[in-house]
Amino acid sequence: EVQFVESGGGLVQAGGSLRLSCAASGFTLDAYAIGWFRVAPGKAREAVSWIISSDGSTYYTDSVKGRFTISRDIAKNTVYLQMNNLKPEDTAVYYCRARRGLAYDYWGQGTQVTVSS
């Protein structure tokens, strides 16, 4: 059974840090492009960060550059999003995603991140 289970969200004050995790089972992350998305209240879904399977290169949306870091632990089959210097505008539900071609597209269940000012 394929599962992609998120954890690590919560409530934090502005300037604080959180680390989100997404543990995969039933498939191996190293063959997939892995991303983090977020949906803020009243806003469209936004791609926050990606890590490409072939060479490990990463992408960040401008608003999180220098504050967020995506990483993967192949041995643990887990992807992480380290979020530092959080801002109230980072408040959203965060989703992890693993994609390979058009046929394989897995999403986590979402985890709430709330940043208070």
Textual characterization of the structure:
A hairpin with a 6-residue loop joins strand 5 and strand 6. The model has no long low-confidence stretch (mean pLDDT 95). 0% of the residues lie in helices and 55% in strands. It contains no helices and eleven strands. It starts with a strand and ends with a strand. It has 117 residues and is mostly beta strands. The protein is globular. The strands form two sheets. Strands 2, 4, 5, 6, 9, 10 and 11 form a seven-stranded mixed β-sheet that branches. Strands 1-3-8-7 form a four-stranded antiparallel β-sheet, with no helix packed on it.
The total count of strands amounts to 11
Runs in which pLDDT lies below 50 for 5 or more consecutive residues are: none
Strand content is over 45%
Mean pLDDT over the full residue set: 95
Shape: globular
Secondary structure category: mainly beta
Q: How many helical stretches?
A: 0
Based on the structure, what is the oligomeric state of the protein chains?
single chain
**Order of SSEs:** EEEEEEEEEEE
* Overall radius of gyration: 14 Å
Measured between the Cα atoms of the first and last residue, the distance is 41 Å
Helix share, percent: under 10%
Could you give a short account of the major beta sheet? 7 strands, mixed
